[in-house]
Amino acid sequence: MADVTALTLTLLPLFVLAVLALVLYWAFGNDRRGVPDHTGSDFGLLVEVAAAPTAEAADVLTARLRRAGIKVTAVRRGGVHLLLVFPADAPDAKLLLTT
After folding, report:
1. Tens of pLDDT along the chain (99 residues)?
2. Which of 16, 25, 46, 95 is most buried, judged by most C-beta within 10 A?
């Protein structure tokens, strides 16, 4: 009887760890997404609609888009200020900025 108890006390934690490992592998182990781009050139869902040479020009264009109800983000990259919007708003933003 003592052998069964000792065997149970040894195998039960191993079984629990194995089940936990399988659940964690099922939940997180088969991630097929690409490696994130940490170079600063990937803006996720946002697309570039304009580039401004100065921060003041970017602020003017950003205010113009926001007054039209378009969500816009301005980022500085290499001395140029990029205006980024969601893809659904890109045609409207480009049209508004060219007029």
Report:
1. 566 787 888 889 999 999 999 999 888 877 676 766 677 677 888 999 999 999 999 999 999 999 999 999 999 988 899 999 999 999 999 999 988
2. 46
Minimal CA–CA distance to 93: which of 58, 65, 63? 65
Rounded distance, CA 52 to CA 54, Å? 6
Paired residues of 52 in beta bridges: 81
What separation in angstroms does the CA of 94 have from each of 30, 37, 53? 39, 26, 17
* pTM beyond cutoff 0.85: no
List, as one string, the DSSP characters of 12-75: HHHHHHHHHHHHHHHHHTT--PPPP--SS---TT-EEEEEESSHHHHHHHHHHHHHTT---EEE
